[in-house]
Specification:
166 residues, mainly alpha, 2 domains, 3-stranded antiparallel β-sheet, 6 helices
Length: 166
């Protein structure tokens, strides 16, 4: 009899605790199978006092969520263009310094070894710029960032809910 009541108590406590937990999957928060709006999640963060880290990650996730949709296409492309322009100016300047260093006609000492180092640095800057521009402009990058931020929010909320139930 005692074992039966213990099992019943454990099952009731597990079902009571698991009902309140927040789940996050692919841009949507759910609780008890119902989809929650972002305003409701913000309210739950304040209600359960999930902490500043949950609030910061929620705001960050909202920014990433906007960029992870077609609505944020302009923002993504402008950031990618900015990174590309800055990187290409830096690479061009590095190539120019290498060229000036190698040419005695322009006041350089004709040291090809130093010039080659500048050319290699310019090539590396160009490669990193192209990679960063493509990455920042891609939809998948912002979806992954959104997923990371919102998963942190869901975990923090679940910890706060668990602490309030105890």
């Amino acid at each position: 009899m005692k074992l039966l009541t213990t099992i019943a108590a454990v099952l009731l406590s597990i079902s009571a605790f698991s009902q309140d937990y927040i789940e996050y999957d692919n841009g949507t928060f759910t609780q008890n199978g119902e989809e929650l709006s972002m305003e409701q999640i913000e309210h739950l963060i304040e209600q359960y006092q999930a902490g500043w880290r949950a609030q910061v990650n929620f705001r960050r996730g909202m920014r990433f969520n906007k960029r992870a949709t077609d609505e944020g296409r302009l923002s993504r492309n402008l950031m990618g263009t900015g990174v590309g322009v800055v990187g290409l100016f830096a690479a061009g300047g590095t190539y120019g310094i290498g060229f000036l260093w190698a040419n005695p006609l322009f006041g350089g000492d004709g040291d090809q070894e130093k010039a080659t180092n500048y050319y290699l640095a310019g090539t590396a800057i160009t490669a990193v710029t192209v990679y960063s521009t493509v990455k920042i402009s891609s939809l998948k990058y912002w979806q992954n960032r959104r997923e990371t931020s919102f998963n942190i929010v869901a975990n923090k909320l679940n910890k706060a809910i668990k602490a309030s139930n105890e």
